[in-house]
# Entry
Amino acid sequence: MQRTCYALPKVKGKSRTNLTKEQENQLLVNVFTELEELRKKRFPNVTEWKCKGVTRKYCFETPLEHGEHKFLKIKYPATMPCLPQNLSGNTFDTVFSTNQSMLELFILKRKIKGPCWLSLTNVKKVSSEHRSTWCRQELIVDNPKDVTCRADDLNKSPPPLTSVTLHAQMLRNAHNTNEIAMISFLV
# Structure
């Protein structure tokens, strides 16, 4: 899975809509050069990334003209740490989507909308010594594209499934140690 974020080039003295293609491309090259220097100096754990110029629509919290704008799209492996939220520089204003969770990105990319059946391909069974849950079966998929939500599965009945939620409430006792005060289950 890849982390994806977008750097907004800084425009001085002009409106973004009045820039020529060459000026937009030069701004993106400048942003890439500065980000590459920042990556080497401040983020040594991010050892590799891919960048390219893309056009995206934006209409949220920053005072940016609504409509399409050129951004520098940055992709790097999810195993590497996130870039900081407040990252800015001389050639770019901000970097968007630095704090997006991998679960959110997975749900958006695979177009999973609400409760649905998921089809898994190229599945591997996790051995009992490497399990991270108490489920009877634990499966792993290496590529997110191996998970699909198909329209023909919408009318299938739900599987027989029993789920338990566990909550333990702790309190400090007279010996200043944690003690279980209450445990609740929801089946």
Observations:
- Residues 110-186 form one domain.
- The beta strands are 2-9, 50-58, 67-77, 92-96, 119-120, 123-125, 139-141, 147-148, 165-172, 178-186.
- The chain has two domains: 2-106, 110-186.
- The radius of gyration is 23 Å.
